[in-house]
Structures are given as structure tokens and as C-alpha cells.
Amino acid sequence: MLIDFLAAHITVKRRNQFEKVLNSRTRYLTVVLEDIYQSHNISAVLRSCDCFGIQDVHIVENRNRFQVNPDVALGSANWLNIKKYNQKDYNTVDAILHLKQKGYRIIGTSPDGESTLLQDFDLSKGKAALIFGTEKDGLTPEVFKYVDESLKITMYGFTQSFNISVSVALILYELTKKLRGTKIHYQLSKEESEEILLEWIRTSVRKSELIEKEFYKRNELG
Prior knowledge:
By secondary structure, the chain is α/β, with parallel strands linked by helices. 41% of the residues lie in helices and 14% in strands. The longest helix has 17 residues, at 164-180.
């Protein structure tokens, strides 16, 4: 098995850590960032996604390009599946339709009075894609033609918005904590876990492509 062949080049402790983290990973919740322009905010979001066990992050690039600040992200991007949408001038709808095809409910984040309070959000209705917009303008109006529900965080001060990275962290903390306390099957499938484990081992092994060639060469000879 290729995983075992490559894993011989990392420590047992490292592999055990990978498997432990994978056991807590989820695709039941996913995060979508719409045209975020500050690299430190994007990087902080990636770090939060990794910390809370979110495996997939969807990056919509309309006017702004995705950039990671390594001092903020601390390598978190290496352990996430990041999908970019950047083929058009406006890519948000493509991202939403892709996620809907994958069975996700589209959840907009907005302080609007009609939005569901974070603590009242019902996870049992199915997988959820949480969409976050820029701090200045929020989500683009087009998003709300497709959302299944909007979500908001209760606030008590004069300032009625959080920094986007703070909003993501607060929402993920609340929802992942609630999710892990339910009977919902949120973990990755065996096939998904093995696919990600292989990628993580590749990331950790120097010249992994040469080792893989040796693996396939041995199997052909065998």
C-alpha cells in the first residue's frame, strides 16, 4: 500500500498524529470566503479552520487574489483542502452552485434582523457551507438570492460587526462544539481519510515523488 510505503519515511509518532487529527476532521461544515482582500484575515481564517477540524475552505476570487501570510497562517494551509474559484470576473455563483451540487445548505453570515441566531442554528438539517464576506461591504447582494438561511452572532455593543477572522472563529467554535455533541455522522469517510493522509505524508516526506516511483516500480516487477 502506497501510504505504508511512504509512511516508512516519517516517524510512527507523526503518522499517529495525522490519524488522530483526521479522526476529528469534518466536511459536514465548510467555509467559503468571498473576495477577502487582507491576507492576514484569510490566514487567520485558515488557522481557525484547521484548529476546529474543518477540512475544506472555498476561496472566491472576484477582484482580490488569495494570499497567505505565513506568519499568521503558521502552515495551516498545508493541512486543508483549498478550492479556488477565479475563472470569471464574478465567481461567487459558481462556488454556490458547486456546493449545492455537493448537498450543502448555503448559509450566509449577516447581522440582518431576519438572520438566525448562532445559538439557534439547526445542524440536523444537513451539511452547511458558511459564507463570509468582506468587513467593509459584507456579502455581495447576489449571494442572498441563493442562501437557504442567514446566520448572525449576538452583539451587545455599539459596533455591530466583528473582524471577519473573529466571526469565523466564533461561529466555528460554537457549531463544531455543538456538532461533536450530536449523533450526526460528521467524520470523513475511510476513503476521504486515506486520500488526505496520503497527501499529508507526501507533504512531510522529502522527494516523495521519487519514493512513489520506486513503489510503483517494485509493484510492476512483483
